[in-house]
Design goal:
alpha/beta; Rossmann fold; 7-stranded parallel sheet; 3-stranded mixed sheet; 14 strands; binds uridine-5'-diphosphate-4-deoxy-4-fluoro-alpha-D-galactose
Length: 334
């Protein structure tokens, strides 16, 4: 049986990666400082090292306590809008912490690291869909910080033999189809959960950030990928690392506008989604749509939940079952 370290395993994507690993019988240790994640998102029986990645000594102790076959590195600050307000904080946290983690992994003899990167490294791409060879020209500090980590890890491959898979997530969305985990940020800024909370009367009506983009309905296009499919991709890339480091874009290849998303929530829930119109949000590109052809061809990965309605359905179900999010008394399932 293999054992894996998942940093950010109490967070949204990380908790779904933990479920995927456990579902196939692997052992998992979560490293998380619980700054944005939730203890309740970690299944019972999975140890949580409550460590901040900035603390090099404590990170070293985690690697001394367990042997890991690979590391999944998801812990990061990840909000585009927030990063525009706190650029240096984003760059310091994401870059510094990733370097500390990679050094600890190398020192402990771990040879494989899967890194949670982002579509935000591409900025405002001139060509759609976005393949791996699209020039990386971030337009916000969040994307810049992730690109800097990608570049640092590439050097560590050559010099230290640390094989890395950089996975550029497009818009992670939805919830575990079995209802064991979901999306719960505080404050919630992501479109789908934010609009659902508005529809449930638990938040103000969602504001549509800009209607004057050069897109079919004037609102930005995003490629929403089900978080369980995203998690599956993490497992699918591991064998590829035997041959060398890799980078993959992960999405479904279809762009949906903000208005499309609100319509899907109305269809799935049968309720109106109250909304207002606001100005553009700084740092938002008009369109981010992935080509995941390389991932498909090289790993056989296929999304199992690739329609917007299915993605929204699982998100809606999780919010209906957990109106308080993880704050409600429900300790980790599975
Ligand atoms: N949006 C609104 N109103 C809201 C929230 C969002 O109109 O209240 C719009 C945004 O302008 C954007 C779209 O909905 O056009 C999606 O916004 P999200 O905040 O849900 O997601 P982002 O596209 O900003 O960012 C997400 C992740 C990033 C990742 C990016 C890659 O948070 O980490 O997807 O596509 F880099």
């Amino acid at each position: 049986m293999a054992r894996y370290l998942v940093t950010g395993g109490a967070g949204y994507v990380g908790s779904h990666v933990v479920l995927a690993l456990r579902d196939r019988g692997d052992e998992v240790v979560v490293l998380d400082n619980i700054s944005t994640g939730h203890r309740a998102a970690v299944p019972k029986g999975v140890p949580i090292a409550e460590v901040d990645l900035a603390d090099q000594r404590q990170v070293g102790e985690v690697f001394a306590a367990w042997h890991f076959d690979a590391v999944f590195h998801m812990a990061a600050l990840s909000l585009v809008g927030d990063s525009m307000k706190r650029p240096l904080h984003y760059i310091r946290t994401n870059v510094n912490n990733s370097v500390i983690l990679a050094e600890a992994a190398i020192k402990a003899g771990v040879k494989r690291l899967v890194f949670s990167s982002t579509a935000a490294i591409f900025g405002v791409p001139r060509v759609t869909p976005i393949g791996e060879n699209t020039p990386a020209e971030p337009v916000n500090p969040y994307g810049e910080s992730k690109l800097m980590v990608e570049q640092a890890l590439a050097w560590a491959d050559g010099a230290n033999g640390l094989r890395t898979a950089c996975l550029r997530y497009f818009n992670a969305a939805g919830a575990d189809p079995l209802g064991r985990a979901g999306e719960d940020h505080m404050p919630e800024t992501h479109l789908i959960p934010r609009a659902i909370l508005g529809a449930l009367g638990r938040a103000e009506p969602v504001s549509i950030f800009g209607t004057d983009y050069d897109t079919p309905d004037g609102t930005p296009l995003r490629d929403y990928v089900h978080v369980t499919d995203l998690a599956a991709a993490h497992l699918a890339v591991l064998p590829r690392l035997e041959e060398g480091s890799v980078a993959y874009n992960i999405g479904n290849g279809t762009g949906y506008s903000v208005k499309d998303v609100l319509a899907a929530i109305e269809r799935v829930s049968g309720r109106p989604v109250p909304h207002s119109y606001g100005p553009r949000r700084e740092g938002d590109p008009p369109s981010l749509v992935a080509s995941s052809e390389r991932l498909r061809a090289e790993t056989g990965w296929r999304p199992a939940h690739d329609t917007l309605d299915e993605i929204v359905r699982t998100a809606w179900a999780w919010h209906m079952a957990h109106p308080e999010g993880y704050a409600a008394p429900m300790r980790g399932a599975a």
